[in-house]
Amino acid sequence: MFKKGSITLLLAAILVLVMASASYASPGHGNGNGNSIGNGKGKWKIKIQSDVKTNKLTDVNSHWAEQPVRFMITQGIVTGYPDFTFRPNNPVTKYEAIMMISRASGFDGTADEDLDLDDNVPDWMRECMNYAVEEGILTEAEAERFKGWEPAKRYEVAIWAARAIGLEEDDQTSFEDDDEIPYFARSYIGGMCKNRYMVGYPGNMFQPNRPVTRAEMASIIYRIMLAESEGIYDNDDSDNDSDLEIVSLSPADGSEDVDPDITKLTAKFNMAIEAADDMESVTDGVKVKNVTEDEYIDIDEVSIDGRYLYIELEDSLADDKTYRVTIDEDIIEAEESGENFDGLSGGEWEFSTGDAEEEEDFDIVSLSPADGDDDVNGPDTRVLKAEFSDDIRVISGKDLDNAARVYNKTEEEYVDIESIEIDEDTLVITLEEPLAEDSTFEVTIKADYLEEEDSGVNFEGLTGSDWRFETN
Predict the structure, then answer these.
(1) For the domain bounded by 246-352, which CATH number is listed?
(2) I need a surface site. Which of 37, 169, 335, 359 has the fewest CB within 10 A?
(3) How many CB atoms lie within 10 A of CB 1?
């Protein structure tokens, strides 16, 4: 493992090579020795490949992602086309996204895993899919139903990349379109955005279902691979020549209906920060006021981690109140330049809480036929129903037709399902044929397919042993 300073010199040399190269990139297959700079399970590597040249690409000159694209080509992670184009604005397919992430993680064309993949998976992707499951980038269930030719969505790329690097999850997102982010993807997106591996769009939008372009995919991997370098990568909110300032707040300034149960407030700066004097002065200089009740609330701890200022409260917030956070000037400074932060005053960070709703358990309340029923009329039974405690919906990006399966335990075979539908709070499973007589059946409802419509709470699934019955 290179020391950090050595990595910096290595990256600088590679970037000079990238921009000075004079001919077209060879495809590469992600092979070669390198130095891992990732923090997770994957081996995210920087490789010196002096024979890789990128300058004959005809459609990336002056493109905003020119540097990331050329750099990723030197690593063998992305490739151009035979006509010397990269097509940076084309959507990346799910197959391509998994291939790029896998190559960055160390995929060399082989894998120990040997899945029973669909015959439609192309030969060039089969080993990569095996590797992706082996490394935890995809689950086995995801790989088996993978629609690889479809464009990869932003929330999907966030999940796969976060898994690949073992990124610590963070469910503190505050985008205007948070309600469009699938419940199961929020913590992955939070982690990716916290580390600036992915960024939002104007208007504080994440656009989770927007297809990722080839240029954007190269840039995401580029950010991850260079994250621990010193000064090689300059992103939008990390410019050492700019003034020290806050780039995002959580909860966001002006937000309403904030969950009153939160106990942590976060201010993200555009560069690494530290206490100007000591942390005691920082703690004393941060105030959280309940404006509605005209009283300050108790702070348990104030801490700094890189570009983040964290404010831990002693208790959760009150319902239907307005809060204001202030930060004194000159108590925080930029870590490198020593520039002082001007502080936050007045209504620059203000938000309101909503009503705390008493959480109810989201679960199945009845099954038809009932679990344990040993006298079901098979020839008269073609529809199975699972009623939930609240209205349900299929999780975004999931195929409802794959949400359940019915197994004839006596004959040791799966039963053909005609359709799976949702009727408000009930999952309705219609079989192609009535149930066979004198047989034991088990019904499985898969995890991570259904969620409560109002809250987005994920259904954890129902195993066959939890819904078993016998026909007469």
Answers:
(1) 2.60.40.1220
(2) 359
(3) 8
